[in-house]
Amino acid sequence: MAAFVISSARISTLAVALLVATTISCRGAGVAAATLSNKYYDKTCPGLQPIVRSAMAQAVAADPRTGASVLRLFFHDCFVNGCDGSVLLDDAPPGFTGEKGAGPNLGSARGFEAVDAAKAQAEAACNATVSCADVLALAARDAVGLLGGPAWAVKLGRKDSRTASQAAANANLPGPGSGLSSLLASFAAKGLSARDMTALSGAHTVGRARCLTFRARVNGGDAGVNATFAARIRQGCPATNGVGDSSLAPLDGETPDAFDNGYFRGLLQQRGLLHSDQELFSGGGGSQDSLVRKYAGNAGMFASDFARAMVKMGGLEPAAGTPLEVRINCRKPN
Fold first, then answer.
1. What are the boundaries of each domain within the chain?
2. Average pLDDT over every residue of 236-265
3. Which overall architecture, per CATH, does domain 12-175 show?
4. What's this model's pTM, rounded to 2 decimal places?
5. Which of 53, 65, 76, 208 is catalytic?
6. CA-CA distance, 214 to 229, in Å (whole number)?
7. What residue numbers does the annotated binding site for heme b cover?
8. Binding site, annotated residues
9. 275 is catalytic
10. Alpha helices in 63-210 (DSSP H)
């Protein structure tokens, strides 16, 4: 899932049947889901999950891109000091600079209004009870479901950080030019396996990316690209810097607003939009080639692995000593 956001095998048919158990062993650096619980708000905010899903349904109906954007926000939150809602904090000059201005987020992170709306409705029902980090975790799950993807049980009980680090965001979030070894190392540092990395990268089955992130790839800077595909993308993203920088192209050109396995089928054809996407499949015996082929041919396997990896990533905790609270407004500390 580099910084980044209908086939005949639509995953939506699996969504109801697939409810992934959250008794997954979360081992490795930074992963510790033991403090979270499926029943955390059962007594204090029992209507929370329908509230968040309703808010997300409205947001995605108004703009289907919102689903991919919120999913990306959750990834960018969890990969920077754990799932603590820090990505949601606005800058507060002159004393505070958050993560929104970091390179992987600047001009591309979106979906904040959908999270705000869900949080506002949660506040109306259960004042000062539900963390922004938990709202974001639920919103990301619901975004996937609303786009036809799998369901999973979200463990809850996260708290919100009172601070954020632009430097940490720049250091921890993989970029669109990342190579396979860099991607594997980045995910391993979070206790996530190579299989987790490849499954989570499948989030790029929905959403768009800006020309800035793939210009070099489609304009002769990348050998492993389908020529017909590159020529088509170049029409909106010419080689000249500054021309069409913010033009968008779908990460999955087959079904850009459907959460399915079309992304992996595209990789088999050398149609990965980002360099980091295509790094998952070289066709020459790369370490993830076999898994990409399996996901491309087996929508259910991808859906199951993706859901499990999301649960695992959602267990990433803030570093010890991080000041935490339940924010009333997701954009600023209390």
1. 12-175
2. 96
3. Orthogonal Bundle (1.10)
4. 0.89
5. 76
6. 12
7. 204
8. 77, 80, 82, 84, 86, 99, 174, 204-205, 252, 255, 260
9. no
10. 65-78, 112-125, 132-146, 166-172, 180-188, 194-201
